[in-house]
Amino acid sequence: MIKSQFDGLAILLLVGLCLLFGLNQVVVKFGLEGVSPLMQAGLRSIGASVLLIAWMLWRGEKILRRDGAFWWGMLLGVLFALEFLFIYMALNLTTASRTTIFLYTSPFVVALGVHLFVPGEQLSKVQAAGLLVAFIGVFVAFRDSLDADASLLGDSLALVGAFFWGATTVVLKASPQRHQSPARVLLYQLVVSALILPLLSWLLNEPGIVSLTPSVIGSLLFQIVLMAFVGYMAWFWLLSHYPASKIASFTFLTPLFGVLFAWLILDEQLTFDMVGALLLVALGIYLVNRPARRTGKIV
């Protein structure tokens, strides 16, 4: 059953996941010292698939089952893999800051998709405005680093990546996959991407695995265990219990946490714009999740 409003557990879990996802942006940089991007994502999916299958077997949950959701699961896996393909292609052509801004148009894709295809999850005008305010907050956070190294193709590829990210959520909520357990939903995406991403890495002539230093191995373990297994499992649990567009509004916190961790761990610059950006994102999240006012006449 979908709950219309977040409770304390959901808010705590969402903020924690955004912290985890933001930290992952920094951890990936350590992994790139020894493993190319798509291969790194592929190894993450392979390792997390093994953990997830072991978890499902331990709990007695069937891995293969005739439930009418197989092809929808395969579609989700392909969308999941394409998302990473276009994001990494964008990063090769434009700056990380520009990629981040265009990537976080994804909540708008989710909002429009669930409005059209998922009954009962439509956003009001105030909630739509909240998404826009939160997006402006992300823009403010990254505007100082929007330099001249721009590429129309790179920006367009980032937008395509955002579309596939949002489309994954919409297909999940609008298809029979919404009745699956979070583990089964995640299994399709991990297994399909585990097959596709290493192949794409080879086709695009990535160097693959270059060096497995302790920091690179630590980065891979973090991504496999905490990000792809624990983090995504919790994410899909949330999607099975709460409105997708409201969950998507919290993702605007992720790049801000990413900047914060980059400052703490990598000693990257932190600007005063971050304070204003955080306030805007918080205001946007509040507007999206504010309970609707009930109006009525006393008869």
From TrEMBL:
Alphabetical UniProt keywords: Membrane, Transmembrane, Transmembrane helix
Predominant subcellular localization, coarse grouping: membrane
This protein's record includes keyword Cell wall biogenesis/degradation: no
Annotated TM spans: 41-58, 70-89, 101-119, 126-146, 152-173, 185-204, 216-240, 247-266, 272-289
Domain EamA: 9-142, 153-289
Subcellular location: Membrane
InterPro entries from the UniProt entry: AA-Vitamin_Transporters (IPR050638), EamA_dom (IPR000620), EmrE-like (IPR037185)
A single Gene Ontology CC term: membrane
SUPFAM superfamilies (alphabetical): Multidrug resistance efflux transporter EmrE
This protein's record includes keyword Transmembrane helix: yes
Membrane topology of the entry: Multi-pass membrane protein
PANTHER family in UniProt: EAMA DOMAIN-CONTAINING PROTEIN, INNER MEMBRANE TRANSPORTER
Name of the protein: DMT family transporter
Species this chain originates from: Amphritea opalescens
